[in-house]
Write a structure and sequence with these properties.
alpha/beta; about 30% strand; ATP binding; nucleotide-binding; about 325 residues; 2 domains; Rossmann fold; Alpha-Beta Plaits; binds adenosine-5'-triphosphate; six-stranded mixed sheet; AAA+_ATPase
Length: about 325
């Protein structure tokens, strides 16, 4: 007998729409997140990421569209569905005079955990967010990044199946940024579905199993990083700083297998290759035989920045 797999997604959104006055902030957004999957919404400031996830989290009414969590439709009358979600907004709402542990205990009790449950759950969460050692200090003395981490901890207290994070690393120091990324990775490995918004393509590349590229309120592409970079033609760029007769060397390089284009600048050669890594040994041998001294080599593989530029004609960065 065939085994039936449960393929109900952790989250399904269909046709989400929202306008603010004349501005259509979100214009028919649909996507799904599987159990244990980390899905990134990647787009520049103002693309509509916060509006999408506020609707997903049930804190903003959609003008149209549907959200279901683990197969259950979400409506204002389904608090049990909301309870499966941990939503971590950009704004931090914590009590500065209370310690990190006291803040978490307060929210745990608010979520209805018993005193004993709260104590053990708070201890677990402090480990997950890497703040156990600072748990006794008042939150007013925390760095911005530590406050962000504690905010994520609040979203984890009730053990949600789906964690929604809205640009959790914006304005955060590098140490906290790393701690946040590592926590998300650990949670995903533990089976949590994660919806992560960011305008940092490095974060999307590191964390996300699949990425939805959002611009002007629309999803313009979706897929794994590999699938998305294939959209731009999968050309690697090899940039060499070199001394010698570069125009003559460029002529020779054009005959090397895998090299598609060669351009020459002052002390610099730039090559487009199908697979830069594979072509590199022959490129270097060719340059050596042409009497060119190579000072540095840089291999740039296509990234999500290139994908975004390709799809929208704009840069992700401001
Ligand atoms: N309450 C509001 N009233 C009017 N316009 C709004 C409101 N909230 C958002 N907008 C507008 O809707 C669009 C989408 O905003 P949103 O915050 O969802 O984008 P975002 O991708 O999350 O950007 P950011 O990275 O800056 O948070 C923007 O043009 C924004 O100015």
């Amino acid at each position: 007998m065939a085994v039936r797999m449960d393929v109900t997604p952790a989250l399904r959104c269909r046709g989400l729409r929202r306008r603010y006055g004349d501005l259509i902030a979100v214009d028919g957004v649909s996507f799904e997140i599987a159990l244990g999957e980390t899905y990134g919404l990647l787009g520049p400031n103002g693309a509509g990421k916060t509006t999408v996830i506020s609707m997903v989290a049930g804190v903003l009414r959609a003008d149209a569209g549907e959200v279901s969590v683990a197969g259950q439709p979400m409506t204002p009358r389904t608090p049990a569905v909301k309870a499966r979600i941990g939503y971590v907004p950009q704004d931090v709402a914590l009590y500065p005079d209370l310690s990190g542990r006291e803040n978490l205990r307060f929210f745990a009790r608010l979520y209805g955990l018993s005193r004993a449950e709260a104590r053990s759950r708070v201890a677990e969460v402090l480990e997950t967010i890497g703040l156990a050692e600072r748990a006794r200090d008042p939150v007013g003395e925390y760095s911005g990044g530590m406050k962000r981490r504690l905010n994520i901890g609040v979203g984890l207290l009730h053990q949600p199946r789906l964690l929604i994070l809205d640009e959790p690393t914006v304005g955060v120091d590098p140490q906290s940024r790393n701690a946040i990324l590592a926590s998300v990775e650990a949670l995903a490995t533990g089976g949590m579905a994660v919806l992560y918004t960011t305008h940092y393509m490095e974060e999307a590349q590191r964390l996300c199993d699949r990425v939805g590229v959002i611009d002007n309120g629309r999803l313009v592409a979706e897929g794994t990083v590999r699938e998305l970079t294939a959209l731009v033609g999968e050309h690697d760029r090899v940039v060499l700083a070199a001394d010698g007769d570069l125009p003559a060397a460029a002529e020779k390089l054009r005959t090397v297998a895998g090299v598609r284009e060669v351009s020459v600048g002052a002390g610099r050669l730039e090559l487009l290759c199908g697979d830069g890594r594979a072509a590199l040994p022959e490129i270097l041998a060719c340059l050596a035989s042409a009497g060119v001294a190579v000072r540095s080599v840089e291999l740039r593989e296509p990234d999500l920045e290139a994908v975004f530029l390709h799809l929208t004609g704009k840069s992700l960065r401001d």
